[in-house]
Amino acid sequence: MKIIATEKAPAAIGPYSQAVTINGFLFISGQLPINPETGVITTGNAKDMTRQLMNNIGAILTEAGSSLEKIVKTTI
Question: What predicted TM-score, i.e. pTM, was given to this entire model?
Answer without folding.
Answer: 0.90
